[in-house]
Amino acid sequence: MSYKDSLPSEANLVRMTRRPCARASRFRWTAAGVVSEALNVSSSLVASMVISPTASTIAAGDTQQYTVTGYDGMGHSLGDVTGSTVLTVTDPNVTCTANVCGSSTPGTYTITATNGIAQTSAALTVSVPLWRT
Q1: Other Cβ atoms within 10 Å of 45 Cβ, number
Q2: Domain spanning 48-132: which superfamily?
């Protein structure tokens, strides 16, 4: 019997299930009633991110808090990566400290979140406070 003959054919492939863990995925498949060895795939690198909120409006002098969720190269969630993500903005009128950004100057600004090679952005609009109009 050759190696190829020992592999399950598509007709004998019963099911394939995926059980993701926090930073690893466990794959197990069953072929013709025989459970194979488990294959563990692990990656803790952030390949993409989603920032929340992606767009917000605050009054001048207020701040906006952001959260960032990271995903590995296979699209599995790495959970909240806000603590290891750096928020920046190129305009000197806006300040970001940890995951909170704000400004006293009305305008629309782009907040950039960076974690390793992954980047995403959010729009922050700062409006004139109602008491000043």
Answers
A1: 13
A2: Immunoglobulins (2.60.40.10)
